[in-house]
């Protein structure tokens, strides 16, 4: 058990480094720059990926401007604060570096190993992992006490929550900084144990797994979607899987099955679906109405264990 962290210990964040320029990273890059108004760097494996992330951010800034949420000066200020690079040396003066790269422990360890050589001794490291062990991600760090889990939800601009994950090594300064940063981003933060799926994905993996199971059992997709409505969720389980991405959902399921084999269903069907384009069919309002024929075939061919 842990008490509320002492805000006085928080490190002032003057420049944010983001590693990864994919869907989640680009979304929270915009949030950092918009809410903290500090320089934000994004990077990825190559310039094409960096450019794709930057294009998304510039597009969203233009949308906010068109909606009247940002005036021209404010939008230009954001454009000036966000920068993409493939040169990690530029991260040297970042005091808060968060990664959202491929969900594999080895990849994340390698990324942090490289960045730790570059950043200052007291810079904070954060991982947006959705379900991997934060302690394991930090296992190769010289300074594992500076690492904290900082898990966003999709769509980042709208979802009000961040899960902050403390490992047995996380220093109070890192934890406190994470809470102050989350507040600066306008999010509610909850402190979770470093347990598989933390809290939210543990619940979502159940919801998604049970929804898929109901389809294997013969309930049509659209009916499963409707049947979930009384739970008060803002969208049905398949629409949610579509939002977070089938690959991400499959990965979360894998992690949960590995951690709790007796409590979660194996998900080979999610993997097969993740390879298809346009898995779900939607009506004009974007609601899921069914699966494509190819996806139906995959579902029928894979009955979860
Ligand atoms: N990016 C930015 N803004 C977005 C957005 C996006 N992708 N999607 C929606 N929004 C904004 C809209 O612009 C709109 O803003 P405005 O009112 O200021 O114009 C606002 O959100 C509401 O959008 P809509 O009216 O179009 O749609 P809804 O009212 O139907 O809400 C929703 C859409 C917010 C996505 C809602 O359905 C929802 O909350 N769904 C559940 C999402 C969820 O559970 N996410 C968690 C996924 S798990 C996860 O991410 C963890 C990972 O580790 C797997």
What does this structure look like?
With 305 residues, the protein is an alpha/beta fold. The chain has two domains: 7-193, Rossmann fold (3-Layer(aba) Sandwich), CATH 3.40.50; 200-299, N-(1-d-carboxylethyl)-l-norvaline Dehydrogenase, domain 2 (Orthogonal Bundle), CATH 1.10.1040.50. Helices cover 45% and strands 14% of the residues. It contains twelve helices and ten strands. The protein has helices at 23-36, 47-66, 72-81, 105-118, 134-137, 172-184, 200-216, 221-227, 237-244, 246-259, 268-274, 293-301; strands at 16-19, 40-43, 82-84, 96-99, 124-127, 147-151, 161-166, 188-193, 280-282, 288-291. The strands form two sheets. It has an eight-stranded mixed sheet with strand order 3-2-1-4-5-6-7-8, with helices on both faces. The chain has a two-stranded antiparallel sheet with strand order 9-10. Helix 2 (47-66) packs antiparallel against helix 3, helix 7 (200-216) packs across helix 10 and helix 9 (237-244) crosses helix 10. The chain is globular, with a radius of gyration of 20 Å. The model has no long low-confidence stretch (mean pLDDT 92). 3-hydroxybutanoyl-coenzyme A (3HC) is lined by residues 130, 153-155, 157-159, 201, 204, 234-235, 240, 243-244, 248, 252.
Query: Residue ranges: pLDDT <50 for 5 or more in a row?
Result: none
Q: Report the β-strand fraction as a percent range.
A: 5-15%
CATH class of the largest domain: Alpha Beta
- The name of the CATH architecture of the largest domain is 3-Layer(aba) Sandwich
- Gyration radius, rounded: 20 Å
CATH topology of the largest domain: Rossmann fold
Largest β sheet strand count, sense and barrel closure: 8 strands, mixed
- The helix content is 40-55%
Which ligands are bound?
3-hydroxybutanoyl-coenzyme A
Strand order, largest beta sheet: 3-2-1-4-5-6-7-8
Number of helices: 12
Sequence of secondary-structure elements? EHEHHEEHEHEEHEHHHHHEEH
Mean pLDDT: 92
Shape label: globular
Total count of domains: 2
- End-to-end separation: 35 Å
- Looking at CATH, the homologous superfamily of the largest domain is NAD(P)-binding Rossmann-like Domain
Structure summary, number of beta strands: 10
